[in-house]
Write a structure and sequence with these properties.
binds magnesium ion, Helicase, Ruva Protein, domain 3, 8 strands, globular, Rossmann fold, 58% helix, binds adenosine-5'-diphosphate, GMP Synthetase, Chain A, domain 3, three-stranded mixed β-sheet
């Protein structure tokens, strides 16, 4: 080993030792040891310390837990002050994980005792993120429906009505969080239940390995004995015909035996173009719910709830500044909050101001698509223009056609394009929020079967300076 390598190896060992001394409870130390066993490699590349893990979920998961504390420990251990820590998916880590799974599969094949099977599910799946619980999930109009269903499933997994539960929505909006919250709740209340959280990417990799090792039986057994299957990001497995066949069978088995399946995806089932029709129709048999971008009020509520865990008080104006300027995803908001916290920790004597936050978050806010916020009023006016109605017509309760459709179209567009909370939108229409929800859902359904209506809505959006892709999914 060259001297340089020795230094690098030492750096990691010293950093880990330092980090571990900062852990107080034996549980925390055990948790670290368990997690660190999944780090397949670690090396310093320039000023980036790269830790190799098996899949993207693991990378995100470990990164949220350890990037910052490990960075601090590495600096203390002698790394450059600007070192950063990154968890990346490497082939090496992926292969190691597959080998481990394979061994477990062999053990399962040789042992039919159900209890053993269950234990192996717990151990073999990536641990659930301890923060992804219902208690830590902030509800708002954008996610309250999805959250209510998730809570109902958590209390009684495997019922007929909400099975499968298909959650879809853009990146960083809380799909994985909500899905894992179900898992936490089930495990906490019934230790005998076997819960499996897996990304569809890993599921697919395992399947491929099982085929090449002629170990399909074990693979099937493993999945068919699960009580609650949490399959994250199903969009990844489209296009693989043989896999879809297998997945279809596993899925049918789970359903037949009354097991609960929860899936997440970045598009609704009908937009899964590379999926077979029969799978798509299965996905739609239970309940399909979208998580939307949070409104301003929910964004600030989420920021406040995350800021409470930080030992220093973050001024309210900074939280509202983040809420106003970052709206694409909760993950991006968390990134902004972390930058602010880091700044406050490094400069304890400086009072953080909006100006400082502005500079600090420049890069993040530039990433946000700068779209002009539309008001409910502007939307109602545009709809009136298209349908030849007056503003007052929209606000009446007259249900004749085409007035009723025009009103619902305006509600639908207001939900999609203003970023305002349901309550505020409802105020704009002088209605209650259930009417708005009902109206926009009615249009969402009609768009799929009425191409003319779809075209009209797209042209109103364009007229308002927005892209049709923002509203029609
Ligand atoms: P997705 O799976 O939709 O890409 P995640 O579930 O990974 O998004 O969420 C991204 C981050 O935002 C996570 O840290 C999660 O805890 C947080 N988050 C998302 N929605 C909420 C919410 N409603 N309340 C609290 N935290 C949230
Ligand atoms: Mg996710």
């Amino acid at each position: 080993m060259t001297e340089l390598n020795t230094v690098r190896a030492d750096l990691w060992d010293i950093a880990v030792a330092l980090y571990k001394t900062s852990l107080v409870s034996p549980d925390d130390i055990r948790r670290w040891d368990r997690h660190a066993a999944a780090f397949a490699s670690h090396e310093l590349n320039g000023n980036v310390f790269v830790i190799g893990v098996a899949d993207q979920y693991a990378a995100d998961f470990y990164s949220s837990l350890y990037s910052e504390p490990l960075r601090i420990a590495l600096v203390k251990a002698g790394a450059a002050a600007d070192v950063t820590v990154k968890f990346l998916v490497t082939d090496e880590a992926r292969l190691a994980e597959e080998r481990k799974r394979e061994e477990e599969n062999r053990a399962i094949l040789g042992d039919t005792q159900r209890i053993k099977l269950k234990q192996s599910h717990f151990n073999s799946t990536i641990p659930l993120n301890a923060n992804y619980t219902f208690e830590n999930f902030v509800k708002g109009p954008s996610n309250s429906f999805a959250c209510a269903i998730a809570e109902a499933i958590a209390k009684e997994p495997g019922g007929n009505t909400n099975n499968p539960f298909f959650i879809w929505g853009g990146a960083g909006l809380g799909k994985t969080h909500l899905m894992q919250a179900i898992g936490h709740h089930v495990i906490r209340h019934d230790q005998s239940k076997s819960v499996c959280y897996i990304t569809s990417e890993t599921f697919l990799n395992e399947y491929i390995t099982a085929i090449s090792n002629k170990a399909l039986d074990a693979f099937r057994k493993r999945y068919r004995h699960i009580d609650l299957l949490l399959l994250d990001d199903v969009q990844f497995v489209g296009g693989k015909v043989q896999f879809q066949e297998e997945f279809f069978n596993t899925y049918n088995d789970l359903m037949t035996y009354g097991k609960q399946v929860v899936m997440t995806c970045d598009v609704p089932p009908k937009k899964l173009n590379s999926f077979e029709e029969r799978l798509i129709s299965r996905f739609q048999q239970g309940i399909v719910i979208e998580i939307e971008s949070p409104s301003y009020e929910t964004r600030v509520a989420i920021l406040k709830s995350k800021a409470r865990k930080f030992p220093h008080r973050i001024p309210e104006e900074i939280l509202t500044y983040i809420g106003e300027n970052i709206h694409s995803s909760v993950r991006a908001m968390e990134g902004a909050l972390t930058l602010v916290m880091r700044y406050m920790e490094a400069n304890p004597s400086v009072q953080i101001t909006q100006q400082i936050a502005h500079v600090l978050l420049k890069e993040l806010t530039e990433d946000e698509v700068t779209i002009r916020r539309l008001s409910v009023e502007e939307i109602i006016k545009a709809v009136c223009g298209t349908y030849g109605l007056s503003y007052g017509d929209i606000l009446t309760t007259n249900r004749s056609q085409p007035l009723s459709t025009a009103r619902q179209v305006a509600m639908f567009l207001a939900r999609k394009l203003t970023g305002l909370s349901l309550e505020v939108v409802a105020d704009g229409f002088k209605r209650n929020h259930t009417t708005i929800l009902h109206g926009s859902q009615a249009i969402q359904k009609r768009i799929d079967v009425e191409p003319e209506l779809k075209k009209t809505i797209e042209s109103i959006a364009e007229h308002l300076g927005r892209k049709p892709s923002e509203i029609i999914i």
